[in-house]
Automatic annotation (TrEMBL):
This is Phosphate/phosphite/phosphonate ABC transporter substrate-binding protein. Keywords: Signal. PANTHER family: PHOSPHONATES-BINDING PERIPLASMIC PROTEIN (PTHR35841:SF1). NCBIfam families: 3A0109s03R (TIGR01098). It comes from the Bacteria. Belongs to the phosphate/phosphite/phosphonate binding protein family. Residues 1-27 form the signal peptide. The keyword Protein biosynthesis does not apply. It holds the Pfam family Phosphonate-bd. Transmembrane segments: none annotated. InterPro entries: PhnD. It comes from Streptomyces johnsoniae.
Length: 313
């Protein structure tokens, strides 16, 4: 069982505004010739749903990381992926949970990071997921071609499944940005719900959000929406650590994130109660990945010539 936390959980899990000028002391402090070895590690992430309590979802991981490293871990909630990128670039975040595109932008624009792991739905799976396009059932929108002249919801310009891969799909269908009205919804759930509520003619999000999570939560009915498009498999959303930490600390974090950030270990060590309580974003846990696993994202960037991709070149 884990030892008693060094700080009250409310203090450890306080969600600090991810505004760089107001973050207080930088994660870049406590450095030496051997690298940084801070007393407090900062973990940056964004919620996939507007209403999701990020602190509750990450609490088992934070408890485990504290036990493994002997350090305090603070969670910073970002409003978008750009904030996560800039936090790690500025030394305000030591551990960052990215989307595939935001990882590519961070890596290729010179952020000092090491990719470590990505999530899998079930133990033994390969990391990856799909983007889908959804429309209201009976709307007559059954393919990308039908989006011409319509209002289309996307998640975030740094979102792989909520923007980049759908943009590539639209290009393949012969549609440019001038052929439809683009609306930025802000979250995967918001994109889907905007379609269900009639605010958008169609929208894009992760397959799991559109076909499972919102149905199970009762926010949409199982037959309310039609899936008219799905992407190729997208590499899993990775977690990366800052590369200026000491070798020992980086190795400890790598081992913890690759081998102990999963439902089985978290439950066995008493960090969570089991079942859904131990799942991370609905996934069993994290497994090792490398930069080479994200070559297909760079390929889609080359196809779309997306401005967000160019930010990382």
């Amino acid at each position: 069982m884990p030892s008693t936390p060094r700080l009250p959980r409310a203090a450890v899990l306080a969600l600090l505004p991810l505004v760089l000028a107001a973050c207080g002391s930088s994660a870049a402090e406590d450095s030496s010739a051997d690298g940084r070895d801070p007393d407090t590690l900062v973990l940056a992430a964004i919620p996939s749903e507007e209403s999701t309590a990020l602190a509750q979802r990450y609490e088992p991981i934070i408890q485990m990381l504290e036990e493994e490293t002997g350090k305090n871990v603070e969670l910073q909630q970002a409003t978008n992926y750009a904030a996560v990128i800039e936090a790690q670039r500025a030394g305000k975040a030591d551990i960052a949970f990215y989307g595939p595109l935001s990882y590519i932008v961070a890596k290729d624009s010179g952020v000092g990071l090491e990719i470590v792991a990505a999530p899998v739905a079930e133990q033994g799976d390969e990391p990856g997921y799909r983007s889908v396009g959804v429309s209201r059932a009976g709307s007559g929108i059954d393919s990308m071609d039908d989006l011409a002249g319509g209002e289309v919801c996307f998640v975030d310009e740094n979102s792989t499944s909520g923007y980049l891969y759908p943009a590539a799909g639209l290009i393949a269908a012969g549609l440019g940005e001038g052929d439809y009205a683009r609306i930025t919804a802000g979250g995967h759930d918001a994109s889907v719900l905007s379609v269900a509520d009639g605010q958008c003619d169609a929208g894009f999000a992760t397959e799991d959000m559109a076909t499972r999570q919102l149905v199970e939560s009762g926010q949409i009915g199982a037959d309310d929406l039609t899936v008219f498009w799905e992407s190729a498999m997208i590499p899993g959303s990775p977690v990366a650590i800052s590369d200026d930490l000491t070798d020992e600390l980086r190795q400890t974090l790598t081992d913890a994130l690759q081998n102990k950030t999963n439902a089985d270990h978290l439950e066995a060590q008493g960090y969570c109660a089991g079942g859904e309580d131990c799942l991370i974003e609905g996934n069993w846990g994290y497994v090792p990945v490398s930069d080479a696993d994200y070559a297909s994202v760079r390929d889609v960037c080359a196809t779309t010539r997306n401005e967000q991709c160019e930010a990382g070149s």
